[in-house]
Amino acid sequence: HLDLQAARLNLAGTLYYLGELDSARSLLEKALDGYGRALPDDHPHLQRARSTLAALLFALGDTSGARALEE
Q1: Distance set, CA 68 to CA 40, 54, 65 (Å)
Q2: DSSP-assigned letter for residue 6
Q3: What is the pLDDT of residue 18?
Q4: What is the pTM for the complete model shown?
């Protein structure tokens, strides 16, 4: 459900700011998967989830993973 994915994104943002990056990553990956199954590739919610996960991956030092999501 789209509301569940939005809640996951919001909670992931909170976890990110609390320094719980692995937990945030898990939620972002779940949200991205959920949005990816429900929305077209160019939908803004899906793009936001990709961008947010990319920023987290960059913060974790996974620059190639971050770049792949942004392309």
Answers
A1: 18, 8, 5
A2: H
A3: 97
A4: 0.91
